Structures are given as structure tokens and as C-alpha cells.
UniProtKB/TrEMBL annotation:
Catalysed reactions listed for this entry: alpha-D-galactose 1-phosphate + UDP-alpha-D-glucose = alpha-D-glucose 1-phosphate + UDP-alpha-D-galactose
Family matches, as Pfam families: GalP_UDP_tr_C (PF02744), GalP_UDP_transf (PF01087)
Span of domain Galactose-1-phosphate uridyl transferase N-terminal: 40-195
Name by which UniProt lists this protein: Galactose-1-phosphate uridylyltransferase
Transmembrane segments: none
Binding-site residues for Zn(2+), renumbered to this chain: 71, 74, 133, 184
EC number(s) per entry: 2.7.7.12
Organism: Mycobacterium helveticum
The protein's annotated pathway: Carbohydrate metabolism; galactose metabolism
Cofactor(s) the protein requires to work: Zn(2+)
UniProt keyword terms in alphabetical order: Carbohydrate metabolism, Galactose metabolism, Metal-binding, Nucleotidyltransferase, Transferase, Zinc
Length: 358
């Protein structure tokens, strides 16, 4: 079903996604919010790497670890306290009040010589997985998790079609160790005006692979992981979850559909159901690894239906910096300065442990 649309006090979009039989009931947002500046962030071109850097100074003012009774993601039935002015909700998406990118629909930035900058146009949205302040994605009921997937699908379709958006990135940061400042279960969606460096690198590798071997790089890697089997964590008729051969993170699992699609929009209804199930399965395994919930990053790698991104294969990368029950993996000099990752555990050992955590 189409989401129920509303507006926040400063004009930002708010979308309610509801479970069957539930009817969203938003109220007027009566907060005295300042007007929005579509040019509040900036892109600066790094000539040494050929990459864009986003400078968004206003994000310094974003809400930082509020007490539970002041959480801006909990329902706000009075219209005076919350980013979600409603007595309750299932899943909700709204434009970020403190975005890294805003004012989508403008021309893409153009690299150049010298000190090159451009307005930080794009789109940043927040996805609240549930109205419950405590809990996590892994604790959602399957139908509720499927509704989050539907929200990702809807927003991916809308943003991919928007002018000036080159890449749509759905993600979640979970845990204070990752840097989360709002503990309410939520994720985010970025609509970038350019291809991010990681995506550009992966597409270049995939293009080279196709020219040399005639096949799709990601599909071939998936086939090799399945044939090897030692790093496969879970597999169904529709999806495969595995620890990659050259994993960078202490805990890292990739989830691939078993057939080639470029993004979540191209998944069939059965595949959307299967995706929600295997995603929950992997996250539940994560939370069984140690006594405390595992901090993680979830990254949905999606690609547009365009010639430039034709070799992209939709998949999810889940990663954690926890390398033992009491130790974290810090991205120090080799990783942060040189982008040369050093693994502390073998991918095969991590996969074996996750397989055992049924």
C-alpha cells in the first residue's frame, strides 16, 4: 500500500508505512522549527584522491544522546515533542533535520582543478523501524521487518527517479561503539549526487571482470562462495549469506540474492519476503555471538538501471568492529590512513561460529 504522507513544521516530508489493518493518524507538527536552508552543506573536491568530501557543519547541532523521555523518534501525539507527530506508528520515514545533503534536484557536481566546491545537494532521510524506543531490527516480527524492506523499496524507487541523485544508499548504524547518538531503532537513506568512492571502485572491478571473463563479477564470486561452502552462513532458495573470502572486518557477512538484480526494487514479492527472513536470521545470529548485542553497520549496495552501473549486483554488507567479547577493532593508521585493512580473525572461523548460532 502507498504510504500516508504528511509534512513537518519546517516543510520536510514525513511518510507512514503501516501493517495490514493499521491506519496512521498523524497530527499537526506544532514545533517552532527554523526554516530550512537547501544550501546548508557543501561538496569539496579532493584532487589527491579524485573524491568528493561532504562538509556539513550544521550537523554539529544534531540531537546527541537524549534521555529516553526526550527521544525525537518516539511518537509525539501532541505535535510538540517529536519528529513523528502521531500517537503511534509502525514504520516511518522523514527527511533528516540535520542532513549531510539537501536540496535534491540540482545539477551533479563537476570535478576540476584547484579548489573546486559545489552545493551539497542530495537527500538524507531517517527510517524508524518501530515506535518502540527499545529493541532492535533483529527483534522485529517477520511481517514488521518486511514492512521496513517495503519502505526501503519505496524510497529507493522514488529517489532513484529523482533528478540529481546518482546513488541511493540505505543503511543502519547500531550501537554506541559505532557512533550512534539516538538509541531508538532506526536507519538512514542517503541520495548522493555522485557515485561514492567504494561504489565506483566496485563497478570498475566488475567492468574489468566482464571484459576479461564475460560474466558478472558478483555473480561469479557468489557461485565460488557457494561451491567452497566454508564461509557460507545461511542459504535458501532465494538468498545466500556468507563471510567474504577477503573480509575486512572482525565480523562481516554479505547477503546476496541468488539471481541477478541491481536493487531492492527489482526483487519479486517472494524475494522481498525471503530477504526479510534471511536478514533477520543473520542479525539474530549476530546478537547471539556475545553477552551484549553486537554493534554493526548494515549497508545496502544498490545500483541504478543505467549503462554506467550495469554491472552492479544488489547485496547487503553487514559488518562489526567487535573482535571479541571484550575487544573492539579500531581503524587505526593502516586502515584509516592507508585503507589497508588487517584482519584479526579468519573469515572461515567467523563463518563457522555464525553457522553454529542457530
Amino acid at each position: 500500500m502507498a504510504p500516508t504522507r504528511a509534512k513537518l513544521a519546517d516543510g520536510r516530508d514525513l511518510l507512514f508505512f503501516a501493517l495490514p489493518g493499521h491506519r496512521p493518524a498523524p497530527v499537526a507538527d506544532r514545533r517552532p522549527l527554523p526554516g530550512r536552508d537547501p544550501d546548508q552543506s557543501q561538496l569539496r573536491y579532493d584532487r589527491t584522491t579524485g573524491q568528493w568530501v561532504i562538509v556539513a557543519a550544521r550537523r554539529q547541532d544534531r540531537t546527541y544522546k537524549p534521555p529516553p523521555d526526550q527521544c525525537p523518534l518516539c511518537p509525539g501525539p501532541t505535535g510538540l515533542t517529536s519528529e513523528v507527530p502521531a500517537p503511534d506508528y509502525d514504520v516511518v520515514v522523514f527527511e533528516n533535520r540535520f542532513p549531510s545533503l539537501s536540496g535534491a534536484g540540482r545539477a551533479a557536481p563537476v570535478p576540476g582543478d584547484g579548489f573546486v566546491s559545489a552545493p551539497g545537494h542530495g537527500r538524507c532521510e531517517v527510517v524508524c523501524f518501530s515506535s518502540a524506543h527499545t529493541g532492535s531490527f533483529a527483534e522485529l516480527e517477520p511481517a514488521h521487518a518486511r514492512l521496513v524492506v517495503e519502505a526501503w523499496r519505496h524510497r529507493t524507487a522514488d529517489l532513484t527517479a529523482a533528478a540529481g541523485i546518482e546513488q541511493v544508499f540505505c543503511f543502519e548504524n547500531r550501537g554506541e561503539e559505532i557512533g550512534v547518538t539516538l538509541t531508538h531503532p532506526h536507519g538512514q537513506i542517503y541520495g548522493y549526487p555522485y557515485l561514492t568512492p567504494r561504489t565506483a571502485t566496485m563497478l570498475a572491478q566488475a567492468r574489468e571482470h566482464r571484459l576479461r571473463h564475460g560474466g558478472n563479477l558478483f555473480a561469479d564470486l557468489l557461485a565460488r562462495e557457494v561451491a567452497d561452502g566454508s564461509r557460507v552462513v545461511a542459504r535458501t532458495d532465494l538468498f545466500t549469506a556468507f563471510v567474504p573470502f577477503a573480509a575486512r572486518w572482525p565480523v562481516e557477512v554479505h547477503i546476496y540474492p541468488n539471481r541477478f538484480v541491481r536493487n531492492v526494487v527489482e526483487l519479486s514479492a517472494d524475494e522481498l519476503d525471503g530477504f526479510a527472513r534471511i536478514y533477520l536470521d543473520v542479525l539474530k545470529r549476530f546478537d547471539r555471538m556475545y553477552a551484549a548485542p553486537l554493534p554493526y553497520i548494515s549497508a545496502l549496495h544498490q545500483y541504478a538501471d543505467s549503462e554506467a552501473q550495469a554491472d552492479g549486483y544488489f547485496h547487503v554488507e553487514l559488518m562489526s568492529i567487535r573482535r571479541s567479547a571484550t575487544k573492539l577493532k579500531y581503524l587505526a593508521a593502516s586502515e584509516s590512513a592507508m585503507d589497508a585493512f588487517i584482519g584479526d580473525v579468519t573469515p572461515e572461523d567467523v563463518a563457522r561460529r555464525l553457522r553454529e548460532l542457530r
